[in-house]
Amino acid sequence: MRRLGVALALAVAAGLAVAGTALGHPLGNYTVNRAVAVTLAADAASIRYTIDMAEIPAFATQQAMDTNGNGSVSPNEGRNWAQATCAAVGDALVITLDGRTLILMAAEDPVLTFPAGAGGLDTLRLECPFAGAWTLPLGEHEITVADRTEDGHVGWREVTIATGGWTILSSDVPAISPSTQLTAYPTDSLASPPDVRSGAATFRADGGPGSGTQVAAPASGPRATSNDPFAALITGELTLPVALLALLLAAGLGAVHALSPGHGKTLVAAYLIGSRGTLRQAAGLGMTVAVTHTLGVFALGGLTLAAGELFIPERVIGWLSVISGGLVAALGLVLVWRALLPGSRRAHHAHGEHAHPHPHSDDDVSPTVTRRGLVALGLAGGMVPSASALIVLLAAVSTGRLLFGLGLILAFGVGMAAVLAGLAAVTSLARAALVDRRGIGPSRWTRRMTGLLPVSSGIAVLVIGMVVTVAALGRIG
């Protein structure tokens, strides 16, 4: 096993060097991010509204742009979409000066670009420039900004108010974009991006800059990206040796993915400690995880391809997380209930009333792993598809490598399943060794500890399920 693990690690490292780097969106493959930058000038408010879409929403949006259905976005199709989108943004963006709503006009043509993303897919960046003309008398004024656009996607949202000539007296939003206009997201904010949709500032029109004058944010550059090694496997030259190595790497990355935080490792251990799981059941658990994860990716990918504009993938994943947490909580309740049933300890108590020359294992009173519980555990561990796997599927469709992409996703799921099945096997063996008094001696402390295993494990599984469910509901909002 040690040699196999070392070989797998070396293969993953070597394959990553061969596969290259897939540059994914730093905020995740599902996000749609928005920034409103307002600059106060002498005769107008200059507004630049920026939309930064990650790979999955960008893929669905490009499908909507492709009105003639030829599989590519022409300059005219892109221009029409950009103009319509910016017009909708202008209607939803409300800016007031001293309580009066400014009429926003397009200052320039929209700027639409498609920066490279993970797996050969594009991201999307749209900049909408507006201007609101005004005539300012000398004195203090107040400007407010409200971004009322809503698409249901999660992502970074910010508002900035700056000036190149007037003195800003107070403001509840910064003058400099914390993300450099959605091109350099601060790493310490990626886990919990801001959701700022409004801002207000008071400033003094005094004929020239004064002390405390703030300047406009610097022009943005190319957006920083993050690495996605799994998505990188779908790109590049495709030969038989490369394909075989990529499949091996996909399995290795699936195993690494399963070792990252989450993915049911604690759940699997707690459940099998509280039940009498066998090595055969551990293998069945791994197979269920692999099948569930793979089918989940295929289903979500099919929805994205068929109706990408009609549903939001991250919300589907959010509800899948809720269902997964609910299954886990239900498993915990079943474990606790079965462990506390009077009948589950009847045999143990009967043995205690009579003298026997041989000891009995506390495992005799532990609930066994049922087929339904095993299937539910596998579903909970694999039903939430990974974003990288979905990227691989969409990239495979767009590049004509569907069979190769399906193979990569299946191998990724097998790698995940192997880790969880291995953990299940190790847990089962460790539990069997713990409750075997012949190996460790029939001490009173050991008997008490092993007797508490079923109910304590059930409580742990229940708590895990409740935490997962509450967290998923919080993300859905």
Detailed description of the structure:
This protein has 477 residues and is α+β, with helices and mostly antiparallel strands. The protein has helices at 2-19, 55-65, 75-92, 229-232, 240-259, 265-273, 279-307, 313-340, 346-353, 371-382, 387-399, 402-435, 437-440, 444-476, and strands spanning 23-24, 32-40, 44-53, 93-97, 100-101, 105-106, 111-113, 124-133, 139-147, 157-163, 167-171, 198-205, 226-227. The protein folds into two domains: 25-227, no CATH class; 229-346 and 359-476, no CATH class. The chain has 14 helices and 13 strands. The strands form three sheets. Strands 2, 3, 6, 7, 8 and 10 form a six-stranded mixed beta sheet that branches. A five-stranded antiparallel beta sheet has the order 5-4-9-12-11. A two-stranded antiparallel ribbon has the order 1-13. The protein is elongated, with a radius of gyration of 29 Å. The relative contact order is 0.14. The model is unreliable at 1-20, 209-217, 345-366 and 437-442 (pLDDT under 50).
Largest sheet: 6 strands, mixed
Number of domains: 2
Distance from first to last alpha carbon: 44 Å
Q: Give start-end ranges of low-pLDDT stretches.
A: 1-20, 209-217, 345-366, 437-442
Put simply, the count of helices is 14
- Radius of gyration in whole Å, from Cα? 29 Å
User: Per the principal axes of the C-alpha atoms, what is the gross shape?
Assistant: elongated
As a percent range, the share of helical residues equals 40-55%
Strand content: 15-25%
Mean pLDDT: 78
